Amino acid sequence: MAGGVVVNAGGGKDYPGKLTMFVLFACIVAATGGLIFGYDIGISGGVTSMNPFLMKFFPSVYHKEQEAERNQSNQYCKFDSQLLTMFTSSLYLAALVASFCAATVTRVAGRKWSMFGGGVTFLVGAALNGAAKDVVMLILGRVLLGIGVGFANQSVPVYLSEMAPARLRGMLNIGFQLMITIGILCANLINYGTAKIKGGWGWRVSLALAAVPAAIIAVGALFLPDTPNSLIARGYTDDAKRMLKRVRGTEDVEEEYNDLVAASEESKLVAHPWSNILQPRYRPQLVMAIAIPMFQQLTGINVIMFYAPVLFKTLGFADDASLMSAVITGLVNVFATFVSIVTVDRLGRRKLFLQGGTQMLACQIVVGSLIGAKFGFTGVAEIPKAYAAIVVLFICAYVAGFAWSWGPLGWLVPSEIFPLEIRSAGQSINVSVNMLCTFIIAQAFLPMLCRFKFILFFFFGAWVVVMTIFVALFLPETKNAPIEEMVLVWKAHWYWSRFIRDEDVHVGADLEMPSANGNGKVGAGKLGGMQ
Ligand code: BGC
């Protein structure tokens, strides 16, 4: 075995190298791509609860709201307007489509150019939104923001997972989710301030400030190095080796380099990543690329993220108090993400998924029951302050559970499971399913709240039960496994192994195929620990 390569407990290799400042810095800069996504998630809920914004663009919603306040009418239904939700969700449709174009840019031109393109498009969208004169300009701006998000979310997670040394991949990748949560928090804080602006143009400031995170990622991307995987795939083998040495902080990269080249060679045999991904041997990855983002959205998190101020207003908080409560959930979201950053490479992905899911479920049951007990099905009630505070507390515990499980892992796991030949395509599927489900939930939440009332919390709770069982049965542990050797993890899984033939398993020079009967150097038995 060349150099200092050892086979780690999980059955994959530990390549030599350390966490260099260079890689840390590159990952921090790339992760800022999450800011644009987060800023956007956080800004829409607050803006759509500002009266001057509603009066200008959605007067019918504004009147309905006023009337509800006068008549003390059904609280569940006061914000039910399709046009208003179209404002929130148009972005996700645009992001869905854009992520497919981003797949080609990311593969052919390199990851950094997708990030750059994303930042620039988002910047233009922010300008249009800040200057919006009518609904058309508003929605057009949001479509551009969506294209920006599609490109960034397609390229950033892949970039981070390729740059990171295997044993720190979880930590570095979650930088993306951390930036999402910081973006959401900043947006909530900005809304809190701009809602107080007397002239009624606070919403313009909120929307235009999206230009700041856009500029950060656009400029940052220009300085980012390409990943060694991408350089090799595009034929720059010398640059790739130099980069790998720099990234890993050692001259001893021969082994990893050879494995990357082997992965790249294999990927060249694949003419069409899109049709290829449908082959049986990629079935586990394909299923995960669809199931993980779908489940992430079915946790119901974006009900809180988009509509926290609306939701808190529904609970009877005053304008100011509801924005403040959204700030509190935003803070919990950021701090709880650190829990996953420090534990994900030690405890592994599965434990976080299972714990987070259980915690979310418990909170959903409590919140649904508390709201149901007060509002019942009529939706008319006065909620005492202390009661509302307890609801907020459980919403915070729910957000925390998400923030160390489905939040970060919903981006980390899909970005680390695809072999190079289908990585870009696979990540697009992940982004587009995520955006489609976000769109559906954004669009359906207000009408659903109006019709299902507090039962909605139990609806999402039931999904959390399904996804937690899914993870327990079907998601193998991926911590510490080098990204170009992930096939070993699937091959060792009780269920997925049936889709992968022995001859499909190539993992570079040193590790031979783990045959089903354990004859290879790394046998299936050794990989058992990864499940
Ligand atoms: C999800 C978003 C969500 C955010 C909350 C992300 O991982 O993709 O939909 O709003 O987490 O922090």
From TrEMBL:
Domain named Major facilitator superfamily (MFS) profile: residues: 26-479
PROSITE patterns in UniProt: MFS, SUGAR_TRANSPORT_1, SUGAR_TRANSPORT_2
Keywords, alphabetical: Membrane, Sugar transport, Symport, Transmembrane, Transmembrane helix, Transport
Membrane topology: Multi-pass membrane protein
Domain of life: Eukaryota
Subcellular location: Membrane
Pfam family, one: Sugar_tr
Major localisation: membrane
Gene3D superfamilies membership: MFS general substrate transporter like domains (1.20.1250.20)
GO CC entries: membrane
UniProt KW Membrane keyword: yes
Recorded GO MF terms: monosaccharide transmembrane transporter activity; symporter activity
Recorded family membership: Belongs to the major facilitator superfamily. Sugar transporter (TC 2.A.1.1) family.
PANTHER family: SOLUTE CARRIER FAMILY 2, FACILITATED GLUCOSE TRANSPORTER (PTHR23500), SUGAR TRANSPORT PROTEIN MST6 (PTHR23500:SF556)
Name used for this protein in its record: Major facilitator superfamily (MFS) profile domain-containing protein
Originating species: Miscanthus lutarioriparius
